[in-house]
TrEMBL record:
Gene3D superfamilies on file: 3.30.450.200, 3.40.50.11500, YVTN repeat-like/Quinoprotein amine dehydrogenase
Domain UDENN: 82-492
UniProt KW Lipoprotein keyword: no
UniProt source species: Pygocentrus nattereri (Red-bellied piranha)
GO biological process: regulation of Rab protein signal transduction
Annotated Basic residues bias: 67-80
Keywords for the protein's UniProt record, in alphabetical order: Guanine-nucleotide releasing factor, WD repeat
Protein name, UniProt field: UDENN domain-containing protein
InterPro entries reported for this sequence: cDENN_dom, dDENN_dom, DENN_C, DENN_Domain_GEFs, TPR_DENND3, Tripartite_DENN, uDENN_dom, WD40/YVTN_repeat-like_dom_sf
Molecular-function annotations in GO: guanyl-nucleotide exchange factor activity
Gene (name only): DENND3
KW Transmembrane helix (keyword) present: no
One GO cellular component term noted in the UniProt record for this chain: cytoplasmic vesicle
Region described as Disordered: spans on this chain: 62-96
One Pfam short name: TPR_DENND3
Length: 1263
């Protein structure tokens, strides 16, 4: 289990065997010596952990590593060998005997990879040479290797004594020969620079030691590296001393990023920006790439750099950056791959193979004679080049002002800091490139059915970019990326995509309009010279609908012009933990003591941390848990990993902990069961394991149906197509398409409907309005419908419909005539206009702002236009009356669906069928739409937290968090936010300044959420039905901590502010089983806990040092110690109705408690001096129960539910009461379902959230 927790996987020595060296030497002593041949390298020694174990503590030779069950033999051929000279016994045994190899390590190809150019004896010693390796198993798991080649003087049978041989008293000089040896460190982690430094330290020892001591030196070196733990993701690096160097292991940026321990700017020095982008494009389109270089070390480093450039995308194919001479036939593989070989093979490879992309690192060139490399998206490429120009790639230029450094380790530290900063800048630039090319993918995803609409996404790309996207969308890389997006993974891509959104993109995320170009985008699109001179401007406006053949950029991407958004994302401040010096003799007692010293040092580091630094504390816990695991202290390791729940749950190593638990002895498991925190951990591991088994990660591509569809299949198909998501709208569409027929939709009918919808959407991208027209419209307006050329009382032209108005595009000289805005319409009717002997249908529209009625002879289009305009008119009225812009968006969707239904049915009854989609027009006729004046005056706005879901969801909890004035406006954390808890642990976050949706889904568990608390503008605490308190970091918008001490669902929080500058804020939490826990808000430690004897504890409030707790059957005043002071019980009148307390408020200055009840429309006011019976009762009209109650200034806002005979009428009311007179000031018709949650925004606004039949949030002004 522990073999992958340390730095070292194995250390292998490779070279020629003594037998072959002796045979070669003898042939070279002949009068006609043969040329120096290439020898076959062999594995000479293998050293892998564990080196010492507790079991062999009493055995002789304790310093040697154990060869246990996890090793097998690597058998080398044994030929008849002559005897060896004395003094080389140990070395010879290592070279010729069985070499012990870890059972999961395959070394068959390693000798060739350690000497990819071949092993050849030399007459002179050559310089040491490093190169790097990557091994990939069949499951895609990678192992990394760093190899050093160095030369030693050949000494066989003592024939060489300082290059002199004594024979018959004469001295004869013989030529000296040097044999190369390779030492390879294998690790599961890509620490190329660190391992290279380690080997550099080892080289100094190997060059001065005898051959007989080489194995022992390498073994001791390997055992030291096996003691080095891998740092956890985040801000903590690990440092250790390996004389004469101090070596640093950098940590990963986060758990999803790989380790970066190489110079990421090397490709920028070798290739031009154009070639760099071509290579990245070739990787993204999964070509067959081969890197060439005369320096073996460059190959792997280049390949690894490009793998990091495409992160978080992952290369899914063979990656073999170093091919030996014997492996060149690998290049004939039919699949995509990325490989590398020596530059000397370039011509041979180019001649013998086709369809390869050949990249010369030395020349900085790329050759693809038989492969067409598509150009990357133009806007993203230009942004990449612009960013690259701002990088500072030359250390000497940056360090020219620095003085000479007297210490080599200080000099290395300077360089490392510069490199880390540069690596961070490069990662931001390359990640931005990936975000820019794939940003719009999310617009074409259906999360419920895990579908990506490839065809529609391609239509939104620029024509010049489509060859690139067609190849990328078919790649395994992109498929894996889709899995992550559909799983709503919060990774580097997600964070940068959110942080680099423009204001328009932020606003777009909060609405669900069909895709159409806005006036602002249209003006920008046609302001380019190449578009300004196109045929479209020379065409007359009446022919707009027939111009599909013109050479106009269709389906323009909304990201065509990428704004120059700042990438000022600072690198995190790094902390370095230095390991103690390695123990000299590697015996069990010393190793055990060493691990103990590491845990002691980590404990001291934790104790010295400032209170509240949970991020660094979590890294220390993780590292200590890792060391305890290596030291077989399983209970201590489990305890450390358990502490990650309170410090940073993102670090929790689930797989490691499960393995740790499986390895525990019965006695250890019994001890763990006796410790409450470990017992909870074991239970949670079992439940998490079950939930992981049911995880779904499939990805579907949208396909048109091939058989008839009933309602259920039709709903799924429409949602997958991306046309509309709302379930109720899809049901109405089904009724329209099956009007008067059997209730199934034929696949051909659906195909025609879908095609008409998409073609209409595409044609809207081609509409070009003259600047004289655009200046009359708002920037965010879009043209959604354009009539054919018709005669009107304002001349001949086309009627255009936006989401706000109707206007006429006049013929001849392009002109603009406003017909009306939808909110100003007074009447729409159809009449018949006489023309010769014919009666032509005419549409008349009366506006409140004009005396003259607009009339248009729409002929066959008249019924459809009348239906659409009435629906938009009704939708606008609903929007204005209810302050809810989604009504207008829904009406617009209904109108476009009507148009598509009429277009695909092509029958006389098509308009009648389409009328079933006229939801708002029908509602206007059936239900009075008048909203009381009191409600209209108080209501400011409505927002829909269920916008990205198929059906409305109940708003369970609301929380407002104020903004931070010290932060810049561009910082998302500086804005006030509204947090909304929905079903199954989903949290939606709105920007309370613009009401745009900032985060559409933060997942915290899978159960209902009961309460939320904002803390220090840095955290939001959320209590769940699953008994866990989830803590969300407001900066990263992720749940990074969990408190698991409660045993029942967490119901409420209360905050106790600091009593002095030296004290800590405390948070009280209560659960349904009657337990109250007091938390230190900084350390998250339990200060105390107590139990209250009550039925279903639900509420918690803290007033003047006294705790008030509300349950279903009583309200209690409790001392901080948990002692009951007094108790208020349900009134007798309420007890008879089986009602329970639903909320309470304490008005200390008035000496009153206000209580409400779940199944009663009555409020009771109690005097604090006498809690035996209420002193006042307030009856709320038409209220069957109170759900929530808050105090705002001198007002009491009460959320209720009532019975309503009509599903669309009001059943959720808010009563605003005067706390002085105890009378109702206002009665607000808030929602069409019961009010579930209320919260206040700085006593200026009140937010109300409703149950699932409404699912909206209303914002009310407080007087």
């Amino acid at each position: 289990m522990a073999e992958h927790l340390g730095l070292l996987e194995a250390c292998v020595v490779v070279g020629a065997s003594n037998d072959k060296l002796k045979e070669l030497y003898e042939s070279l002593q002949q009068e006609n010596p043969v040329p120096l041949p290439l020898l076959d390298p062999e594995v000479l020694h293998v050293h892998a952990p564990p080196f010492v174990t507790k079991e062999n503590i009493t055995e002789p030779g304790i310093g040697h590593f154990s060869r246990g069950q996890r090793r097998r033999s690597f058998i080398k051929k044994k030929n008849n060998r002559p005897g060896l000279a004395p003094g080389n016994t140990k070395s010879s045994e290592g070279c010729t005997g069985d070499v012990s190899v870890p059972k999961d390590l395959d070394l068959v190809a390693l000798p060739q990879l350690c000497f990819p150019g071949g092993l050849q004896v030399s007459k002179e010693p050559k310089d040491d040479h490093f190169h790097f390796l990557v091994f990939t198993d069949v499951f895609g798991n990678q192992t990394h290797g760093v190899v050093v080649q160095y030369y030693r003087l050949i000494q066989i049978n003592q024939v060489f004594q300082e290059g002199v041989q004594h024979q018959n008293g004469h001295v004869h000089k013989h030529p000296q020969f040097y044999a190369p040896y390779g030492v390879c460190i294998i690790s599961k982690h890509p620490y190329y620079t660190a391992l290279k430094d380690c080997l550099s330290c080892l080289l100094g020892q190997l060059k001065t030691c005898r051959m007989a001591d080489l194995d022992e030196r390498v073994k001791e070196f390997s055992a030291k590296l096996a003691l080095v733990p891998i740092p956890p993701p985040g801000i903590l690096h690990v440092m250790f001393a390996l004389r004469p160097l101090t070596i640093v292991l950098p940590s990963r940026e986060d758990k999803d990023r790989p380790v970066v321990d190489l110079d990421l700017h090397l490709p920028f020095l070798c290739f031009t920006p154009r070639v760099l982008l071509q290579i990245i494009t070739s990787i993204l389109t999964e070509q067959r790439l081969v890197f060439f270089s005369s320096n073996w070390a460059r190959l792997t480093l280049m390949a690894e750099c490009f793998m990091l450039y495409i992160h978080p995308l992952r290369w899914q194919h063979p990656l073999v950056p170093t091919l030996s001479r014997q492996m060149l036939d690998f290049l004939m593989a039919p699949t995509a791959f990325l490989m590398g070989c020596h530059l000397s093979h370039y011509k041979e490879v180019a001649k013998e193979t086709d369809d390869l992309i050949l990249i010369s690192v030395d020349e900085g060139t790329i050759s693809s004679d038989h492969v067409d490399i598509p150009e990357p998206p133009r806007a993203a490429a230009e942004c990449f080049k612009r960013r690259q120009n701002g990088l500072h790639l030359h250390y000497d230029v940056e360090a020219v002002h620095q003085g000479a450094c007297m210490d080599i380790n200080d000099l290395r530290m300077r360089r490392r800091r510069w490199q880390e900063n540069l690596n961070w800048e490069i990662q931001k630039v390359t990640l931005e490139f990936i975000v820019n090319i794939l940003r719009d993918v999310s617009d074409h995803l259906n999360y419920e059915h895990r579908v990506f609409n490839t065809e529609e996404f391609l239509k939104t790309r620029e024509p010049v970019d489509q060859p690139f996207y067609k190849k990328v969308l078919e790649s395994h890389i992109f498929h894996s990326f889709l899995k992550d997006r559909l799983s709503r993974k919060t990774d580097a891509f997600t964070r940068m995509e959110l942080s680099t959104r423009t204001e328009a993109q932020k606003m777009k995320a909060g609405i669900e309009n069909p895709r159409r170009p806005t006036m602002q985008e249209m003006a920008r699109k046609y302001s380019c010279p190449e578009n300004r001179l196109s045929k479209r401007l020379g065409a007359s406006l009446p022919n707009l609908g027939e111009e599909k053949h013109l050479s106009i950029p269709r389906h323009a991407s909304l990201t065509k012009a990428i704004p120059d958004v700042s990438l000022d994302i600072p690198a995190k401040q790094i902390k370095i933990f230095k390991l103690p010096d390695f123990p000299p003799p590697l015996v069990y007692q010393y190793v055990h003591h060493y691990y103990g010293e590491v845990t002691h040092q980590l404990g001291k580091a934790m104790a010295s941390l400032p209170t509240g630094d949970s991020s660094l504390l979590a890294r220390y816990y993780y590292l200590r848990g890792l060391v305890n695991t290596l030291n077989s202290k399983r209970l201590e390791a489990l305890s450390d990993f358990q502490n990650l729940y309170k410090t940073d749950i993102e670090l929790f190593p689930g797989e490691l902990v499960r393995t740790l638990v499986d390895s525990m002895q019965k006695e250890e498991k019994a001890q763990a069961e006796r410790r409450p925190e470990l017992k909870r951990l074991l239970c949670k591991l079992k439940s998490d394991e079950k939930s992981e088994l049911g995880a779904d990660d499939h990805v579907k591509k949208f396909q048109l149906p091939k058989s008839s569809m009933h309602l259920e299949e039709f709903v799924t198909c429409i949602q997958e197509s991306g046309i509309v998501r709302d379930m109720a709208t899809i049901h109405r569409l089904f009724e329209a398409l099956t009007d008067g027929q059997q209730k199934v939709v034929d696949p051909e009918l659906f195909r025609v409907f879908y095609t008409f919808w998409r073609e209409t959407e595409a044609e809207a991208q081609d509409v070009h309005l003259p600047s004289e027209v655009i200046e009359h419209l708002d920037n965010n307006e879009c043209v959604y419908k354009l009539s054919s050329s018709v005669k009107t009382n304002h001349g001949v032209g086309k009627i255009a419909m936006t989401q706000k108005r109707l206007f006429l595009l006049t013929e001849g000289r392009p002109g603009y005539v406003e017909i009306t805005k939808f909110r100003d319409i007074e009447e729409v009717k159809i009449s018949a206009a006489s023309f010769l002997l014919l009666r032509i249908p005419s549409l008349k529209i009366k506006s409140s702002l004009r005396k003259e009625v607009f009339e248009a002879n729409l002929k066959s289009e008249c019924d459809l236009w009348s239906l659409m305009i009435k629906e938009m008119w009704a939708g606008r009225r609903m929007t204005d009356d209810h302050k809810d812009p989604q009504h207008m968006q829904q009406a617009l969707t209904n109108v476009l669906l009507m148009d598509a239904v009429v277009g695909c049915l092509q029958s006389p009854k098509a308009t009648i069928a389409a009328s079933k989609l006229a939801y708002y027009d029908k509602m206007k006729k059936e239900v009075p739409m008048m909203v009381p004046k009191t409600t209209v005056e108080a209501l400011k706005h409505r927002i829909n937290p269920s916008l990205c879901m198929t059906t409305p969801q109940t708003v369970d909890v609301l929380l407002y968090t104020p903004g931070q004035l010290l932060l810049s406006d561009s910082d998302l954390n500086g804005t006030p936010k509204l947090w909304c808890a929905l079903r199954h642990g989903m949290v939606v976050v709105f920007d309370a300044a613009s009401w745009s949706m900032q985060q559409n889904c933060i997942q915290v568990g899978t159960k209902q959420l009961n309460c939320m608390l904002g803390l220090d503008q840095e955290q939001v605490w959320i209590g769940s039905q699953d008994s866990v308190i989830y803590i969300i970091n407001t900066r990263s918008m992720s749940c990074h901590k969990q408190l698991t001490d409660h045993r029942a669902e967490v119901m409420d929080f209360a905050l106790e502010e600091k009593s002095s500058k030296y004290s800590h804020t405390q948070v009280y939490s209560c659960s349904a089983d009657g337990f109250v826990i007091v938390w230190d808000a900084l350390t998250l430690k339990v200060k105390k806990q107590f139990h209250l004897d009550c039925e279903g504890l639900k509420f918690l409030k803290l007033y003047n040092g006294t705790l008030w707790c509300g349950a279903r059957d009583c309200i209690m005043e409790v001392r901080k110690s948990g002692a009951l002071h007094r108790k208020l019980s349900l009134p007798e009148a309420v007890m008879s109705t089986n009602a329970t307390f639903s909320s309470f408020l304490l008005l200390v200055e008035k000496g009153e408690i206000w209580t409400s009840f779940s199944d009663s429309g009555e409020l009771c006011v109690w005097a604090l001096t006498d809690v035996t019976a209420p002193s006042n009762r307030i009856i709320l009209p038409e209220c069957t129960g109170v759900t929530c109650m808050i105090r705002v200034k001198d007002q009491i806002w009460v959320g209720c539910h009532g019975s309503s005979p009509m599903p669309s009428s009001v059943s959720g009311k808010i009563f605003v009461l005067d706390s002085e007179s105890c009378s109702v000031r206002k009665e607000l018709q808030a929602h069409t379902d019961s009010v579930q949650a209320l919260c206040s925004a700085e006593d200026r606004y009140v937010f109300s959230g409703s149950a699932k039949h409404d699912g909206k949030i209303a914002i009310w002004k407080v007087e």
